[in-house]
Amino acid sequence: AFIDWITRLPAQIDFGITNVSTVPYGLEGFALLEDVFGLVCRADHPLAAEDGPLAWRDLAGQPFVSLAVGTQTREILDAHEDLAGILGPPVCEASSIFAVGALIRERLGIAVVPAQVAQAILPEGLIYRPLCAPELRRGLSVVRRRNRSMSPAALEFLRCMMDLIFTTGIVNAPGRIDIRADRESFLQNFV
Question: DSSP letter at 64?
Fold first, then answer.
């Protein structure tokens, strides 16, 4: 998707933010942050009664709604065959996190998504609880063409983005999102 797109475009693109695990030849990636997979459910669901991490086995027997096949979230979950016996097949699939959120709100099931993805739907009466044993993580990186300097506007955007990441509280929240770069050394990669 994004990687195919950026490798075919002319040089006017400075960078992209993506969750690819392998960066193709001609591009370079710089780790930005990682987030932990967790449960998303209604605030009145029994699994929402306590705070803190859940074990995957706590999800056994729960109806499960999922992002569609082909999304990185689904690929990561499907790669862990040991989790298939716990989650079972999804009762419903959706192509967007907003549709997954609507399915959860309508009581069709629970979902398992990365913390950063969950942030988009949490203000709508849903909660997020990290999952552990095993802890699954997804990385986000900034990707650009190898050996290419960035425009002043792109560098300023990255500076603003890094300031936002460090000041919003989403980073380094327990069990949720961990920063993988300090601001200054991260920005030095782009000068």
Answer: B
Other beta carbons less than 10 A from residue 133's beta carbon: 9
Residue 132: C-alpha distances to residues 17, 63, 121, 129, 184 (Å): 26, 19, 21, 10, 31
Average pLDDT over residues 4-9: 62
Q: Measure Cα distances from 32 to 18, 121, 138, 141, 155 in Å.
A: 10, 22, 11, 5, 15
Give the Cα-Cα-Cα angle 15, 21, 104 (nearest 5 degrees): 95
Question: Would you give the DSSP letter of residue 68?
Answer: P
Distance, CA of 178 to CA of 33 (rounded, Å):
6
- In degrees rounded to 5, what are phi and psi of residue 163? -60, -45
| Coil, helix or strand at residue 2 | helix
> What's the start-to-end Cα distance of the chain, in Å?
27
* Residue 137 to residue 187: CA distance in whole angstroms: 24
User: CA-CA distance, 155 to 53, in Å (whole number)?
Assistant: 37
141-158: per-residue pLDDT in tens?
A: 888 888 888 888 998 998
The residues with which 179 forms a beta bridge, in sequence order, are: 33
DSSP state of 135: P
Top pLDDT among 169 and 33 is at: 33
The structure tokens 């099931």 sit at: 109
Give the H/E segment covering residue 71. none
- Average of per-residue pLDDT values in the chain: 84
- This prediction has a pTM of 0.80
